[in-house]
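Is iron/sulfur cluster placement plausible here? Inputs below.
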Amino acid sequence: MEGNKVLYKKYSDHLKDKYGEKVYKLPVNLPLTCPNRDGKLGTGGCTFCAEEGTGFENLPNSYTVRQQLIENKDLITRKYKAKKYIAYFQNFTNTYLPLELFKAYVLEATEVEDIVEIAISTRPDCISEEYLAFLNEIKVKHGIEISVELGLQTVNYHSLKKINRGHTLAEFIDAIMNIKKYGFEVCTHLILNLPWDNEDDVIENAKIMSALKIDQVKLHALYLMKDTVMGTMYENKEFDIIPVDVYQDRVITFLEYLHPDTVVQRLIGRAPEENSLFVNWGMSWWKITEEIHNKMTKENTYQGKKMNYLGGKALDK
Ligand code: SF4
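Reply from A.M.:
I modeled the complex. Tokens:
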């Protein structure tokens, strides 16, 4: 893997540059829901989303934030002799709760030793000034970095409607502009093989991430669980999933159009097989990743190779 370092800007390298050593994420699981599930925006959720939210390696949400962080931290410290950690509020929509309660949860994380960053995962339509101002206070008072992870999945607003996201591209742009005012790093989740998206959408995903100066991206392939709307559609053969080699080519295209400074957290997600209908073509995430690395090396390509479209492309310079 070492020789692949230059293919794209890896998250692990970014963390090492920023914190001077390896930094580990500690997942925090709050008792939450999502406005796209509890009736505020909708009741069914995104058509691919299963009841349990997105994190599957979490401790139960009946544990306090402190308990979850300490337990996970002890485990990782023993295993890797780690010294720095990110408290990762991962599951569901972590800003979709009353401000005072949100503050209490986040403050609990600041009391745990060796936390250098707090990462808050949420929806673009659940970002507001009050929550951001509070996070900024944490940054200033406690010297803890803040990052925000936003689920978007695609910039194709027709597809966003089809997957019942409950927001469009505009809310995402608005959230990014607000987060950027505070200088927090922002990470965006994208699914590169939604059945209604083609290669043009993949390129537009990369272009919009670059134009908005998104700091980090996390790529996923569609993950289909039983008893979800999309799972049932898949069982009824209402759409096809592109073959794995086409997914890999899409990832490469995405990287070629992505700004070279954007950090790439992953090229494909990991997910449990239990109750699933489709997970990563039955292959391991690392094998798919390794094959992408090999293809990129063979094709002599790299992140940002085609990033020539910003700053007045049509002008002679
Ligand atoms: S926004 Fe996230 S938690 Fe809510 S329904 Fe969609 S995928 Fe599930």
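Short version: The two ends are 38 Å apart (CA to CA).
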